[in-house]
Amino acid sequence: MMTLKVNGRDHQIESDPDTPLLYVLRDEIKLNAAKFGCGLGQCGACTVIVDGKAVLSCVTPLLLLEGKQVTTLEGLGTIEAPAPIQRAFIEEQAAQCGYCIAGMMMRAQALLQRNSRPTDEQIRAELEPNLCRCGTHMRILRAVHRAARLMETADASSTIDGSVR
Amino acid sequence: MNASVIDRRRVLAGGGALIVSFSMTSAYAADQPAPAAPPPKLPGSLKDAPFLDAWIRIDADGAITAFTGKAELGQGFKTAFQQIAAEEMDVPFASLTVITADTGRTANEGYTSGSHSMQDSGTAIQNAAAQARALLVAEAARRFEVPEESLHTENGAVISFDGRRIGYGELVAGDLLHVQAQPTSKLKDPATFKVMGQPVPRLDIPAKVTGGAAYVQDMRLPGMVHARIVRPPSYGAQLTACDISATVKMPGVVKVVRDGNFLAVVAQKEFQAVKAMRVLSAAAQWKETASLPKQDDLLRVLTRLPSQDTTIFQHNDPSAVGAKTIEATYTRPYQSHGSIGPSCAVAQSTDGVMTVWTHTQGVYPDRQGIAEMLRVPLQRVRLIHVEGSGCYGHNGADDAAADAALIARAMPGVPVRVQWMRDQEHGWEPYGPAMVTKLKASLDANGAIADWNFEVWSNTHSMRPGGAGSMLAAQHMAQPFAVPDPKPLPLPEGGGDRNAIPIYTFPNAHVVHHFIPAMPLRISAMRALGAYHNVFSIESFMDELAHAAEADPVEFRLKHLADSRGRDVINKAAEGFGWRKQQKAPQGRGYGFAFARYKNLAAYCAIATEIEINSETGQPRLVRAVAAVDSGQAVNPDGLKNQVEGAIVQSMSWTLFESVTFDDTRITSIDWQTYPIARFNSVPDRIDVHIINRPGLPFLGSGETGQGPAAASIANAIANATGKRLRNLPLTRRRIKDAIDA
What we know:
The complex is a heterodimer. Chain A is an alpha+beta fold. Chain A is 33% helix and 13% strand. Chain A is globular. Mean pLDDT of chain A is 93; it is low at 154-165. In chain B, the strands form six sheets. Chain B has a seven-stranded mixed sheet with strand order 9-10-7-17-14-15-16, sandwiched between helices.
């Protein structure tokens, strides 16, 4: 039994130490956002943030996470009070099936936390490990730029409705 | 009728917590076609499910629900259907609910495929909603004792000229909507639309970006266990021995299920199931057979297999005589759907009823297959669609549903969740079929096409269930179900011959479909079916002919195209791109253009592209794409743009990078390393999609219209950049480099 800090809360974890973080998040803590895509670290659908860095949770065993802070998409905001990056993805309608999107958002969030004004090239380079099969890439890029602007401006007054072009 | 209703109620009673009750009348309407179809054709899917309450239900409290038998696959049509229903019902958008494919609740609309959702289901909902509103107005007129013309609707109520007002919920008592649809409806004037035509934000996105339960993968039923499959290592492999003793001793393992060559393990926790699967897999011994063709020689493999040959188009005008003849052969490899999320399903057998939650594209046909596999009556199986990862056609969804059902049968009462592993999705999904096309055409003295010959070799493009034999679990059982005989999909939509008939007007044209029954690899429907390769071939060859005629590719197309809506999208894309005659792209770059009307009867799409080629490495990069699309009345323009943007990027990925690989026995492209697809470094700088809206005209659907034009436009841009024509998909860096160096 170990303690894992996820989204600011301590969880007592029963899973074996070799269990990848992804299964702990989904199966034990009952979180939805991080997704199983490949189990091989090739697609990024499982991306979460650990101590500020984007991490592939499907290949990160529990035993490496003692004392670290894990953040998932659920930890950023809620449907009622979305975080800037969540608002940005809604406002840009940056999803088709959406299965890859949580991973995309977490990697982008990690980037924006250390570089609040990334260039387009930097965003593309950062998102390189993450695959999208629907071809939503253009919207994802726009959403990350928008998230950077939203994070920068304290003004969070613009509403979601009607903001789609 | 009574028997079916009783069975249905039993199904519902056994189905678990997700079921809400619904009236028996709508159950009847959802389940069965009308006793006798009325003579005039009803709009959209109303022709198969003609009762209005199969589509629109109004509760006594005024709550309105629209039903569709189609499955939301990430295309966003659920939002579009809500817009349509709200518009024609005259109610606020947010006051409606849309229920999607569920054999217990919705009409049987077959598969969600072929860009048919808007045409079939959208049209049915639009007409059903309009007719429901008309019935409500008529009922209000009766109660108010005033003429219908003096009434109008607003916000879910009928309002009289004298200010009296009555809500839809109060009007709808009894079987008001349990009536057969009429062939024509009084639809709203598009000029008065409030919700249709607006870029309404999609309803599903907020949950998807905040970690809500949005997918079948996210389902957690009480007491649910996790299963993993041990698939054979290759097609036809036989399980000769399997010592399960180590597996069953593993922590959390609940059961090993073996039925012939079907092997699965069930555990309490998901990763316990994964670990047990690995141990079980190591213990399984298989006898394999080398049965696969030569991957590098698909042209010869396909053209030498026995085929059924049909001339599907013939037009003769002996007065047109060609002076200059060119020919070309194009090939397409097997390609993967490549869903990011491996297929998943949850099944539970309760009181003799099997309920399966699945991301299948066809709950009714899949139910039929699963019932056959389990050897139970249809009424003992219920399939409920829950979203999965995008599928782009027939991926592992149906197979996973069958896997879950077969395992759940062995564990009565217990909900079983199955998810495939990455190598299973890549190795076992039914691929988009390899294809070969041979083209030959002549130009007359004026540089116009005088004759056109087109031949296509292809498997079928649908091996979907229906029968149990379409599903892996049923094929692998001890008493297996045979794979059904493949059938060519009929024209006008076609399969391997989809879009094989040119949309252009040629004096002489001859088109032959060589349908190949033998299927060396497991194949089925993949987005756009044969249209992807046929449009790639036709539109590449049009450029080759334009080049031979020393004509501008856009002008050359317009010269041969009579269809005015087609001409409009070509002109719009050319204008948006800044296409100019005799323009030269900068050094190392090329411009391309292509056009098609999907299936020659659905949406129109023209795409202009700019490509950059690294002359040292051959590496191609799509710099920008400009598309113009006409899919009839646009319901949600932003959703439509999203579909076409996605089609361009996905088709670019297919076209530049993708082919299934195999040796003589096994599939060898089993993950993203061995089956690379587009990553962010290959994504263009920009994509512009221009919509040509056609208010009041039929919905044409937009999900697949971009696949073919994007491929050909890219191929044409590569030829423009390098001076070399590549005809074998994918147009990889290596092939471009070899062509440059040749």
